[in-house]
Amino acid sequence: MAFRRQIIRATLQNAKRNSLAQLARAGGRCLSTASPSLSAATADAPPQLPPFDHRPKPYKGPSAEEVLQKRKTYLGPSLFYYYQKPLNIVEGKMQYLYDENGKRYLDAFAGIVTVSAGHCHPEILKDIVEQSELLQHATTIYLHHAIADFAEGLAEKMPGNLKVVYFVNSGSEANELAMMMARLYTGNLEMISLRNGYHGGSSNTIGLTALNTWKYPIPQGEIHHVMNPDPYRGIFGSDAAGYAKDVEDHIAYGTSGRVAGFIAETIQGVGGAVELAPGYLKTVYDTVRKAGGVCIADEVQTGFGRTGSHYWGFETQGVIPDIVTMAKGIGNGLPLGAVVTTPEIASVMSQKIQFNTFGGNPVCSAGGLAVLRVLDKEKRQQHCAQVGTHLIGRLRDLKEKYEIIGDVRGRGLMVGVELVTDRKEKTPAKAETAVLFEQLRELGILVGKGGLHGNVFRIKPPMCFSKDDAVRSLKETHRYSEEERVLPRPASLSLSLGILPLTPYALFLPHIIPPSASESFFRSPLNKVQQPNNLGSDLHSQLKELIPEQQERLKKIRSDYGKVQLGNITTDMVIGGMRGMVGLLWETSLLDPEEGIRFRGLSIPECQKVLPAAQPDGEPLPEGLLWLLLTGKVPSKEQVNALSKELRDRAAVPDYAFKAIDALPVSAHPMTQFTTGVMALQVQSEFQKAYDQGIHKSKYWEPTFEDSLNLIARLPAVAAYVYRRIFKDGKIIPMDDSLDYGANFSHMLGFDDPKMHELMRLYVTIHSDHEGGNVSAHTGHLVASALSDPYLSFAAALNGLAGPLHGLANQEVLLWIKSVVEECGENISKDQLKDYVWKTLNSGKVVPGFGHGVLRKTDPRYMCQREFALKHLPKDPLFQLVSKLYDVVPPILTELGKVKNPWPNVDAHSGVLLNYYGLTEARYYTVLFGVSRSIGICSQLIWDRALGLPLERPKSVTMEWLENHCKKAAAA
Ligand code: NMX
């Protein structure tokens, strides 16, 4: 509450300051009684826009408010607008825009990088008007010179054999067509695009786009998103080789080996002006072509000289694509797009009729040709180089001065300025960006915003933007920085003034983010989970704040959508283990068949990036993941450290739990011993105690929280006891108070190699949760729904985990691999391996570690373990064998014809890593899995209680019932 009050106070102060400053400007008066920052603002009169010889026409149309109302009534709710108070732009001239009151704005975003030559450029207008007066439309079923002239003009601008032009109406359409060409030409289906790329929002191109804020949950097609070669945020920095290798690996492991094509922007537009690591496209184009694919350059934003150094963006990477797509700047505002390719690729399109009603219509073609001519005549490419170099240089100077500027990048007039709250962690300064964005508008400067977090200013003005304009926009940014309204000089100063935490981000955000997208924005992982975490420093108080709003949310979903159908249940589903049936609420994670698991919206690589680690660039700490699963927020390092300590403080295991284990024969399976220990811990259940004392149901979550944290804290000691009892003569190693959860677990097991500590952190993190339908999670949830306490529920879950088709596969894989080595030696050839796989299958067994009930791609948990192995044990013979299996097994399983996912799952890799560091006893592995799983199952259990989820009780039917029902349905 106090925080909200602070936000409102800060907003009001800002608003007051702004309006006073405006008053002062309007009246030219000096407000001598103003606050120090206000007097600074007024004394230093704002620099004016450079003089410009144009008078806007008097505007007689409806007001901004009326337009907005009409838009809301008659246009789709997904339309969004910039600024808290949307701008009614009614006229444009070159690099300037005018609002309904005749106020002039410097346009540094060009109608989203579309107005290339300048708003209403007279020469272009003249050609458009002349053509419109003669003929607007007839289509290509008749001849017209405009389309042919324009195609010729465009082809002349292209290098190599890129000579055949197709005209369409937009960038999305261009990319649709390019993708279709790639598939038809190569005969392959799978496309590769870059994460953080944007290629359109139509139902096919949405699959190519790789920014969740723009993607509706519809089928995305055969598309793979590879690592973004982002020099600022990417894990390999500017080293293109690492990212290029990812493409090679992705083709080798994630596709059939043959692909249709690869598409990339050369400077990502919507993604925040991210320039690809130098040399990247060269290597990747080679790789893709070797895999049978074609290379597509998306020049929708980078083309036509905007980058300054070159006419086309791809030329900055020294490559010639097979297909080039373009739109936006090509028409200077006309709805126009094009695809240019080689005659050979184009020939595949002639097998059917390919036609576009408006593509290349006379008006657009005349306008497009005029754009080409004007850009050349006015030497706009050279101009972009000069002005852009100056602008980027000056912005880099600012970066030296202001901590908050994390990165200045781009080329020519395609510039990005990324704001971060701290340079080391590169935490997106979303709130600060939003505030500065509003204030720049107040000053008459319109920039764009981009990047997944909306923390990158996109400066991509009409190409006639002058040096004066550049200076002016810099001055404003700088002046406001100096006034400490938004960007106080060193960021630490702003923190000490308390300004950054007070930014009215929450108040601005809904106006900046698309209203319909805003929901997905709030759900979108990095935006949501990285919001400042101001709720309190411990988990319990965070939950206390979060629970009421989530209870309300669930209530609303039920009342608003309670009757909405989520799919049809078929007989197949009833008999087939309920596959594909949506029937459980599970908040902590969601599994996408193609993409793998997301923890509270974050993929595994994203978690590796944003969750606090014990070492620089190290693996995430499982405590951080627990925090994330419980609160939906990424914790700070301090919060994670506090949680580590809290778990250590809760970790004492009562002696009778060990005695219960000791009552079993040492030969009992480790999972049996482990579950026995967990059952013994139940004696201390706080939930059971509170229930016996008649606790009110609204308070159930609190003792559940206590039990869950105690259980998670105590499991490593119980699990380590089982290990040491069975395999190390019962010599117990006590906990080390200086270590975090994962490292301590490794230590108590007897492994103190720092790399094993890292492995354990990774292992626990990735095994923690896998949405709710898997056997262990589902069992825990089901048992808990009867109000069994967390110990009873989790013990039940462990019993499910101990099945060979589920968690026991952890042990089965290594035992199977060892049996391969025993029979055929370590240097087994692929042919021998194939024979061994067939032998396993023919003996009626499954190949452990391959296949999945939901996933339809290689498990990302497998991939991150593979990356760990490549980093730390690339030469290990068993790892080499696992790699070989990746080549050998999937084709065989595919050949069986019934396996839905022939690719490896998490279990295919974990044993080899553990074995390498000395944890060789495969029979024990599922216990490690069990410890990890407690984090996900208990987190959800706390929410089950907080949300008051009911007893789970699906309807079952008999075969007779099914027969009767289906017969009746068929007759009807
Ligand atoms: N080896 C041989 N046959 C397989 C395999 C495999 N790895 N995977 C699936 N099949 C068979 C499966 O047994 C079934 O055959 P049938 O119709 O004769 O009963 C058929 O292919 C169709 O199965 P799917 O629908 O593809 O898979 P399902 O959802 O039934 O099962 C698993 C998923 C994971 C149980 C299955 O793939 C499997 O048994 N894999 C090996 C064991 C394993 O690695 N388990 C760990 C899972 C880890 N994880 O879930 O993350």
From TrEMBL:
<dbReference type="Pfam" id="PF00202">
    <property type="entry name" value="Aminotran_3"/>
</dbReference>
<dbReference type="InterPro" id="IPR015422">
    <property type="entry name" value="PyrdxlP-dep_Trfase_small"/>
</dbReference>
<dbReference type="InterPro" id="IPR002020">
    <property type="entry name" value="Citrate_synthase"/>
</dbReference>
<dbReference type="InterPro" id="IPR016143">
    <property type="entry name" value="Citrate_synth-like_sm_a-sub"/>
</dbReference>
<dbReference type="GO" id="GO:0006101">
    <property type="term" value="P:citrate metabolic process"/>
</dbReference>
<dbReference type="GO" id="GO:0008453">
    <property type="term" value="F:alanine-glyoxylate transaminase activity"/>
</dbReference>
<dbReference type="GO" id="GO:0030170">
    <property type="term" value="F:pyridoxal phosphate binding"/>
</dbReference>
<comment type="subunit">
    <text>Homotetramer.</text>
</comment>
<dbReference type="InterPro" id="IPR049704">
    <property type="entry name" value="Aminotrans_3_PPA_site"/>
</dbReference>
<feature type="active site">
    <location>
        <position position="852"/>
    </location>
</feature>
<feature type="compositionally biased region" description="Low complexity">
    <location>
        <begin position="37"/>
        <end position="46"/>
    </location>
</feature>
<comment type="similarity">
    <text>Belongs to the citrate synthase family.</text>
</comment>
<comment type="similarity">
    <text>Belongs to the class-III pyridoxal-phosphate-dependent aminotransferase family.</text>
</comment>
<protein>
    <recommendedName>
        <fullName>Citrate synthase</fullName>
    </recommendedName>
</protein>
<feature type="region of interest" description="Disordered">
    <location>
        <begin position="37"/>
        <end position="64"/>
    </location>
</feature>
<dbReference type="GO" id="GO:0006099">
    <property type="term" value="P:tricarboxylic acid cycle"/>
</dbReference>
<dbReference type="InterPro" id="IPR019810">
    <property type="entry name" value="Citrate_synthase_AS"/>
</dbReference>
<keyword id="KW-0032">Aminotransferase</keyword>
<dbReference type="InterPro" id="IPR016142">
    <property type="entry name" value="Citrate_synth-like_lrg_a-sub"/>
</dbReference>
<dbReference type="InterPro" id="IPR015424">
    <property type="entry name" value="PyrdxlP-dep_Trfase"/>
</dbReference>
<keyword id="KW-0496">Mitochondrion</keyword>
<dbReference type="GO" id="GO:0046912">
    <property type="term" value="F:acyltransferase activity, acyl groups converted into alkyl on transfer"/>
</dbReference>
<dbReference type="InterPro" id="IPR005814">
    <property type="entry name" value="Aminotrans_3"/>
</dbReference>
<dbReference type="GO" id="GO:0005739">
    <property type="term" value="C:mitochondrion"/>
</dbReference>
<dbReference type="GO" id="GO:0019481">
    <property type="term" value="P:L-alanine catabolic process, by transamination"/>
</dbReference>
<dbReference type="InterPro" id="IPR010109">
    <property type="entry name" value="Citrate_synthase_euk"/>
</dbReference>
<keyword id="KW-0663">Pyridoxal phosphate</keyword>
<keyword id="KW-0809">Transit peptide</keyword>
<dbReference type="Pfam" id="PF00285">
    <property type="entry name" value="Citrate_synt"/>
</dbReference>
<keyword id="KW-0808">Transferase</keyword>
<dbReference type="InterPro" id="IPR036969">
    <property type="entry name" value="Citrate_synthase_sf"/>
</dbReference>
<feature type="active site">
    <location>
        <position position="907"/>
    </location>
</feature>
<dbReference type="GO" id="GO:0009436">
    <property type="term" value="P:glyoxylate catabolic process"/>
</dbReference>
<feature type="active site">
    <location>
        <position position="806"/>
    </location>
</feature>
<dbReference type="InterPro" id="IPR015421">
    <property type="entry name" value="PyrdxlP-dep_Trfase_major"/>
</dbReference>
